[in-house]
Write the structure tokens for this entry.
Amino acid sequence: ASCLVGSEMCIRDRPNSAARALKRGSFRTIGVILYTLATTGNVRTLEAIAARAAEEDYAVTLIPVAARTPEAVQGAFSRLNELAVDAVIVMMEVHLLDYSTVSLPPGTHAVVIDSEASEGYSVIDTDQADGAQKAVQHLLDLGHSTVWHVGGPAASFAAERRVSAWRSALAERGIPEPGLLRGDWSADSGYEAGLRLAASDCTAVFVANDQMALGVLRAFNEQGIRVPGDVSVVGFDDIPDSSSFSPPLTTVHQHLEGMGAMAVQ
């Protein structure tokens, strides 16, 4: 170690992390493969992963995937061979892992978050179907004759589970589906769906996430439709800002922080 006497600056030797890794046979680093940080759910989950990993003295390395294709996914997994990681947490649809070209480096452990269960992978998810059913049942219990749905992208397993639960909840009460609209999880896509709903006979809508629900609320407000006076709206995720929407949003709480921490554990 070396210090400058009489100075506040002090430089001390630090253990070499690469040397320590070779000695103990691990790097104490977790790779996280994901598509986007544009969604609140991914950000909250990643924050929980980073916090829990730090508690265990692990670092986190982000590995972005450019597109939802087997080739792009394989590229991300190939980069794992170049990075010093002991394990990987995958935040994307698990079916993209089920290709012969996609493989983990030998000895690397993997956990998949928020995806369809698949043999060979440890999967962590909230009960998407139960949450969606409760949202629809809540709206029907308010006296609405039916419930419309603004779903997420069809490529998302989470979105499809919420669509299936919406359909099941209506079928259980013998109610035909009034209509399914699709968005891409963004508030802008929710706004476009909201404009279409405003031109329909919709009195109740279950929206697959809170960001799209924000766009729906904006569209209704611009068209002079009162929420909840004229239309009831329920979202999904319970993002921190949902209580500050105008009006405050009724939403299904999803324990994203719990999923992130459990994935690390």
Summary: Residues 1-23 have pLDDT under 50 and may be disordered. The two ends are 36 Å apart (CA to CA). The helical segments are 17-24, 40-55, 70-80, 128-141, 157-172, 187-198, 210-222, 256-264.
